[in-house]
Design brief:
Blueprint lengths: L2 H13 L3 H7 L11 E4 L4 H4 L3 H11 L6 E7 L2 E6 L1 H15 L13 E5 L13 H17 L3 E5 L7 H13 L2 H6 L1 H18 L2 H14 L3 H25 L16 H10 L3 E4 L2 E4 L9 E4 L7 H16 L3 E5 L5 H13 L8 E4 L4 E2 L15 H19 L6 H18 L7 E2 L2 H4 L7 H18 L14 H11 L1 H11 L3 H20 L9 H24 L9
Parallel strand pairs: 4-5, 4-9, 9-10, 11-12
Antiparallel strand pairs: 1-3, 2-3, 6-7, 7-8
Length: about 575
């Protein structure tokens, strides 16, 4: 039973207000002692010409108690509802135990497709720590939308086209060594790419040579194309190894190159609609009515740019997937770029442009490092993941030397710690990398939440008994009820995360769930000998439900659980 919906129906019945208007304003009180759900009566003050506290008192008198709502109290201008604890607990815990991993799922997205573009590294360059922001946020959003019943498509829009590949081909022709590159592809390709820029500062003519190589690539020259394909294939092997560590996969690796033959149509469409105009030799779409700089479609030499490719990609995706949403998880500095291309698509008469969404995110900062591929100063993501795993293994070895499967546990905790740190705050906030906070087993971290799950699983193993029929009236203390209420909030947290494209809501939810679980664990004995069998059974049911939801919530963040720590 959906207690929120039930309560909204009751309010609708006694006020005569539109149900949607009530649903938009009801809220969960800041303290448990104020009830389970609150209706602010301020929205009725103007209509009824009465003070909100008076309205709340009158509404409270009209409400009759029933088996679901124990009482309704007027507090200031709010009408606070208190559920029947026993019935609510039975409803929530029973549903979790029956549905298991399906608890919290919804069919609200049934029949709708959501595309999520994320990660999108440049080929022949290292997968650095900065790429993890897009990867973590995009991977989580895709899982969140799938939880809500949407059909999802995971897109990796690889940076595999552009003048940089003319530079790389030029560098390879001068300094490439196949045997060395095969052994360590990304590092070696990065070295010759960096060397090109160093040499080009002394010999500017190399830039012209690089442009010629890219022109050959655009024209389909066999030698240039074969080299480009080789660089791409080597890069994907390296990228997939990192993706496997993260548990990330994609439905499409169609990068910028895939849309190179689809751009002429975009140019023609914009010409036919008289949207192109000349500006210093370039062809642009004027966006002055939006106070936005013009969007360049063709450069003065007739070459296309990122905007042209992204518009071609959006048109292809609309035709191929008929999407409900087309989400781009790309850094916040690209906000103007997306504003421009969405505006161009809208001016072209494509109303579905409104369904294209830029989901920006902040920067990853190190106290003593800056990320710049061009100069070779880069923090490789794989190195960071391996270091996190090793640091976790050292902690486990020191504290639990006899633990079985230490390496497997360390991998899940170490990678989970990194992912959690990237998703713990609003995505637009910058991240200052800190090992101490990431691997804190007692703070706001993945290890803390994973430990809470492992603690619950340990209790269930030690009890080693079937739960069976439960008397839920035995677990209605404040600590127990607070935990049940937090479990019940899972579905709302997932919907909030999707509505705002913010995995942070799920992260915050599961952290609070772990905290409530630990408060319950410390306040309500479960396996002590003097605990009544029926009380133990009811509390074990609550432990089991808590574990199910912690696991599901962490899964939406791309984080795995461990059975023991």
């Amino acid at each position: 039973m959906d207690y929120r919906a039930y309560t909204i129906d009751k309010i609708t019945e006694i006020t005569g207000l539109d149900r949607a208007a009530i649903a938009a304003v009801v809220e969960i009180p800041p303290e448990q002692k104020l009830g389970d759900l609150a209706f602010p009566c301020f929205i009725l003050a103007k209509t009824l010409r009465k003070a909100p506290p008076v309205i709340a008192k009158e509404l409270a008198e009209k409400l009759s108690e029933d088996e679901n709502i124990e009482k309704a109290e007027a507090v200031g201008g709010y009408l606070n509802f208190f559920y029947n604890r026993s019935g609510f607990t039975k409803n929530v815990v029973t549903e979790v135990l029956e549905k298991g991993g399906d608890y919290g799922k919804s069919d609200m997205g049934n029949g709708k497709t959501v595309l999520v573009e994320y990660s999108s590294p440049n080929i022949a360059k290292p997968f650095h720590i900065g790429h993890l922001f897009s990867t973590a946020v995009g991977n989580s959003l895709e899982r969140i939308y799938k939880q809500l019943g949407y059909k999802t498509v995971k897109l990796n829009h690889l940076g595999d086209w552009g003048t940089q590949f003319g530079k790389l081909i030029c560098a390879y022709k001068m300094w490439g060594d196949d045997a060395v590159i095969e052994k360590d592809p990304i590092n070696e390709l990065l070295k010759i790419y960096v060397r090109f820029h160093e040499e080009a500062e002394k010999r500017p003519e190399l830039e012209d040579e690089a442009r010629e190589y890219f022109k050959l690539l655009e024209e389909g020259d066999a030698d240039a194309t074969a080299l480009w394909q080789h660089f791409r294939d080597l890069s994907l092997v390296e990228f997939k190894r990192v993706y496997d560590m993260l548990g990330v996969s994609f439905d499409s690796y169609a990068g910028e190159s895939f849309y190179s033959d689809k751009m002429p149509e975009v140019v023609e469409i914009l010409k036919e609609k008289n949207l192109l105009e000349e500006s210093n030799g370039a062809q642009v779409v004027d966006l002055s009515e939006l106070n936005v700089p013009p969007c360049i479609i063709l450069k003065s030499d007739g070459a296309t740019i990122y905007a042209t490719r992204d518009i071609a990609a959006a048109l292809y995706r609309h035709r191929t997937y008929d999407f409900h949403k087309n989400i781009y998880v790309v850094g916040t500095p690209q906000a103007l770029h997306f504003k421009q291309i969405f505006a161009v698509m809208k001016k072209a008469g494509w109303d579905w442009a409104d369904d294209c969404v830029h989901v920006g995110f902040g920067l990853v900062k190190f106290p003593d490092k800056k990320l710049s591929t061009r100069h070779g100063d880069v923090v490789f993501l794989e190195d960071v993941l391996n270091e996190s795993i090793q640091k976790t293994l050292d902690i486990i070895t020191e504290n639990s030397p006899e633990m079985e499967n230490k390496e497997e546990v360390a991998k899940k905790i170490g990678i989970g710690a990194i992912l959690y740190a990237f998703l713990k705050n609003s995505r637009e906030k910058d991240i200052v990398f800190s090992w101490d906070s990431m691997l804190d087993f007692e703070g706001e971290s993945a290890p803390y939440v994973q430990y809470s799950y492992a603690r619950g699983r340990s209790i269930l193993r030690r009890a080693d008994e079937a739960i069976g029929d439960v008397d839920f009236s035995l677990i209605t203390s404040d600590e127990e009820y607070a935990l049940v209420s937090q479990i019940n909030a899972f579905g709302d947290a997932v919907k909030d995360a999707a509505e705002k494209n913010e995995p942070f809501y799920v992260n915050r939810y599961v952290t609070n769930l772990a905290r409530q679980f630990n408060k319950f664990y410390n306040s309500c004995p479960i396996l002590k000998e003097d605990i009544e069998p029926d009380v133990r059974k009811a509390r074990l049911a609550l432990v089991s439900a808590s574990c199910e939801v912690i696991k599901s919530a962490l899964g939406l963040l791309g984080i795995e659980t461990v059975e023991s720590m």
